[in-house]
Amino acid sequence: MKHLIEIENLTFEYTREEDAVSVKALDGVSLSIEKGSFTAILGRNGSGKSTLAKNINGLLLPTEGTVRVGGFSTSDEDHIWEVRQTAGMVFQNPDNQLVASIVEDDVAFGPENLGIPPREIREKVDEALKAVNMYDHRKKAPHLLSGGQKQRVAIAGVLAMRPECIILDEPTAMLDPQGRKEILSTICRLNREEGITILLITHFMEEALPADRVIVMDQGKIAMDGTPKDVFSQQETLLEMGMELPFAVEMALRLRNKGITIPREIIEENELVTYLCQYE
Fold first, then answer.
1. Ranges of H-type helices in the chain
2. Given 53, 76, 163, 201, which is the most exposed site by the fewest CB atoms within 10 A?
3. Tell me: the pLDDT tens digits for 133-157?
4. Backbone angles phi, psi at 130, to 5 degrees
5. Angle, alpha carbons 122-125-130 (nearest 5°)
6. Where are the alpha helices (DSSP H) in 176-224?
7. For helices 118-131 and 147-159, angle between their N-to-C axes, nearest 10 degrees
8. CA–CA gap between residue 96 and residue 173 (Å, rounded)
9. What is the spatial distance between Cα 116 and Cα 111, in angstroms, rounded to a whole number?
C-alpha cells in the first residue's frame, strides 16, 4: 500500500499576537499516511493536531521540513490545487463551508470552480449526496437541516471533488451525540466502502476506536502511534498527558483498581460487557 501523505521533519512556528512570542506548534514531526487507511489524530488543545491538518492541506506551510500529498509538495505554489484536490478538508463548523441556498447547489460549488462539464457535475453531486445519505434532502435549504445533516452536506461538497483523502478537523465538535454518531458512521462507510483515506482530528476518544491507526500529539510532537488497542492500553501514559479515556477503557481501569482482572486490550463497550458477563 503506497503512502499518500509523507511528512518529514515538519516544524511550524508562528508569532503570538498578544505578546509577540514565537510559538513552535509543530516540532520535527515525521509520519506517512497510507492510501485507503483510517487514521485518528488525538491531543489536548494546543497539542498541534489541527495545525498538522492545515499543513497537510496546504492552508499552512512548513517553517522547516516537507509535506508531500500525492507526490506534490505543499510548498510548491504551482501544484497547491492538486494537493487540495487530493486531500479535501472538512472543518469544525459546517456553516463556514456552506455557500449556497440549496443543498445540491452547495455540493456543486467545488466541481463548478474546477471547470467540470455540467453533466459530469450532476453525476458527481448525486453520487456525493447518496454517499452521505443526503440525496433526499438535495432540494432543501441548508439552514433547515440539523447540525449533523449540515456536516454531511459539507462532506459531500468535498466528496464531489473526488479526493483520495478527506481530512476532518474536529468535525463533530459542535454536534450533539446523535449528530456525532451520524458523522462517524458516514466517515467509516466512506473509508470501508469507498476506499477513501480518512484523517480524523478529534478530541472525542470514542471516535478513534474504529480507526486503523491512532496518533497522539503532545506539545507539537508525536507522543504515541499505533493501533487503537496499542494506544488505549497505555492508560497511565494517556492520563499523564491530560487525555481523557474512552468510556470502556476508563471503566475497565476503575474495575481493575478495585481488584477485578480485566485485560488491557479491552477498549470497547461491547468487549467489556462480554468479558464481565463471565462473572455472572
1. 49-56, 80-86, 103-113, 118-131, 147-159, 177-194, 228-232, 235-240, 247-257, 269-276
2. 76
3. 899 999 999 889 998 899 899 999 8
4. -65, -35
5. 125
6. 177-194
7. 140
8. 14
9. 6
